């Protein structure tokens, strides 16, 4: 965005008037803002993709290749959608910018803090070492803990999240 490269985002509000106002305030020739009434889905998409990005980083760090990465992102999106539906979000939100779009960027982008944490874990480093060197927050670490708990409470199958949780907090 700072380099004025084409970017698209979702702004969520239950009020169409508020969403359209935010859209008008932020939209530029290179920064496209789409409105979405599904506040819960947009919030969940923004948080859950960070956990999947840690898994994607691990896969990259292990050198598992593009096919594994594509499968991981696809199944990760399915997990995000399952939990979102259980919590009252719209499935369409996860097929859009706040779901698939953000997931792809965070799982593949070189600037992704969460992917970077996963990459270093995949190369064999410990979480403590990685986080000790970071000056920014990789929010997916604590989001993995919260997501694992939410999935358990709601009896939602999230095997990727469960494995990320096990690596981060159970020494797997």
Overview features:
7% strand; 2 strands; 172 residues; mainly alpha
Largest sheet descriptor? 2 strands, parallel
Instruction: Look at the helices and sheets and give the structural class.
Output: mainly alpha
Termini distance? 37 Å
Per DSSP, what share of the residues sits in E-state strands of 2 or more residues?
5-15%
Mean of residue pLDDT? 96
What are the low-pLDDT stretches, counting only 5+ consecutive residues below 50? none
- What's the helical proportion of residues? 55-70%
If strands are numbered along the chain, what order do they take across the biggest sheet?
A: 1-2
- Rg over C-alpha atoms, rounded to the nearest angstrom: 16 Å
Order of helices and strands: EHEHHHHHHHH
The outline comes out as: globular
If helices are DSSP runs of H or I spanning 4 or more residues, what is the number of helices? 9
Write the layout of secondary structure elements.
Elements: E1 7-12, H1 16-26, E2 31-36, H2 39-61, H3 66-86, H4 91-94, H5 97-108, H6 113-122, H7 127-133, H8 140-153, H9 159-169
Parallel strand pairs: 1-2
Helix pairs in contact: 2-3, 2-5, 2-6, 2-8, 2-9, 3-5, 8-9
